[in-house]
Amino acid sequence: MTDHATAVTIYHNPACGTSRNTLALIRHAGIEPTVIEYLRTPPDGETLRGLLRDLQITPRELLREKDTPYAELGLGSGHWTDEELIGQMLAHPILINRPIVVTSRGTRLCRPSERVLDILPQPPQGPFTKEDGEVVIDAAGRRVVP
Question: What confidence tens digit (pLDDT) does each residue in 85-107 have?
Fold first, then answer.
């Protein structure tokens, strides 16, 4: 059982390599997170606003453009208010960039995936390599900075 100090939640999209790598890094630290597949179980408005507050970013900064209806909806236009952008993310969860990880040490949009290392309650054990072959943690357990 995970206690509050080591509790980790990931807003995850299993089709996304960055999200898969982030989840693997969390598990490599010996933590089994709460996994929320946000396309199947989208956050409600209160949760999304709380994540934005904790991330300390604007709704526009959380918008995902690639492989979303961003262009068709005209979301690049500057006339959208923060509340309108939140409404679009609630209506089209694919617009929410991912993965978002919540721990007792903070909330981060983990792009790139190794950003999760800054907020994990315990470090990963041993070496770690991303799906694409990029080494994140070397054989000595040290973080590799590209």
Answer: 999 999 999 999 999 999 999 99
